[in-house]
Design brief:
By secondary structure, the chain is mainly alpha-helical. The protein has helices at residues 3-39, 47-76, 80-107. The radius of gyration is 18 Å and the shape is elongated.
């Protein structure tokens, strides 16, 4: 595999994983936003904090897997340079999405 093919593969995987992370975050955020109106106003029980902490742990696991999973596997397989490049590309994509989100919030 040539260097250009390898870089294209890394970039494609970074975009896929980073955008999947953003979609997951959007889904969880939307659920929390709309569930507040639907599920809110009910009597508080111990199940509300248990549910929210479970969601936090699940979200940390899912996003951690999407952001770090493939990079860690590649690193452990000996593809250290590719693993670091993949992680760096993912973080750049997430940073770009974050900045775009800030701009949208600021403008609107």
């Amino acid at each position: 595999m040539s260097y250009n093919d390898a870089m294209n593969n890394i970039i494609k995987k970074a975009l896929t994983d980073a955008l999947s992370t953003v979609v997951y975050i959007a889904a969880v955020s939307s659920f929390m936003f709309y569930a507040q109106g639907t599920l809110g106003g009910k009597e508080d029980t111990v199940f509300a904090p248990i549910t929210m902490l479970t969601l936090l742990v699940l979200s940390a696991a899912v996003t951690g897997s999407l952001v770090f999973g493939r990079s860690v596997l590649w690193y452990l397989d000996g593809n250290k340079r590719e693993a670091i490049l993949l992680l760096a590309h993912k973080l750049v994509v997430l940073l770009v999405v974050f900045v775009v989100g800030l701009v949208v919030l600021t403008v609107s």
